[in-house]
Amino acid sequence: MRPLHVISATLLCFTASLALAESPEQAIRSSLKAIQPDLEIQTFVASPLPGIHEAHLSGGRVLYFSDDGRHMLQGYLFDFKDGKAVNLTEQIKNRAVAKELNAVPVSDMVVFSPEKPKTHITVFTDPDCGFCQKLHEEVPALNKAGIEVRYMAFPRQGAGSAAYNTLVSVWCADDRRSAMNKAKSREALAPANCENPVDEQLALGEVFGIQGTPAIVLADGTMISGYRPAAELAKIALSVK
Questions:
Q1: 82 catalytic, yes or no?
Q2: Which InterPro entries does the protein's record reference (predicted)?
Q3: Is 79 tagged catalytic?
Q4: Catalytic residue among 29, 61, 126, 228
Q5: How confident is the model at residue 16 (pLDDT cuts 50, 70, 90)?
Q6: Does 126 participate in catalysis according to the annotation?
């Protein structure tokens, strides 16, 4: 039989080694820091899969890691339950997008709203986009259906482009809605400049992975890429819980 003091010393060394071992979060953060030091993890949680952790990044992006931080997966995680496939990754993204959009003051947007809205959509828009103009023509129909339309700026050609300058003029106008109506009708706007959120909204859209316009975000964070007719869009928007 081994002496008690030897067993105690062995246990002490084993406990110390566990204390020094990296936790899954520490291991994964170390791996990410080595390849991209400025990558910020907003939330870190265990995934539904044993041995896999989720790193939630800005804009609803999700990375999946092995507990030791050595292996990474990027893609969709589905839950097959009751004969249905539920996209868990998409749910995480939608919640994150909704949270980040809700943090943007409505006063920083150009809003077209009915008297008593039932829900809202947020539209990242470019005044030179043909389908954005088509969607804008249907804003009255969307309002009539009880949907508030919140516009955010997304000049596809970036800062300094003609669309960017037009959007700055819209946001700096005394009457933003009237200016937006003119911009969508391709009417000339009086150039204006002021402190405005166009750059911030463009950057946020890029974080969300938006590449084209109109990019429509429902109240729950679900993103719809491209134009949808008012009747179809209203049905989808009003179905959000």
A1: no
A2: DiS-bond_Isoase_DsbC/G, DiS-bond_isomerase_DsbC/G_N, DiS-bond_isomerase_DsbC/G_N_sf, Thiol:disulfide_interchange, Thioredoxin-like_fold, Thioredoxin-like_sf
A3: no
A4: 126
A5: very low
A6: yes
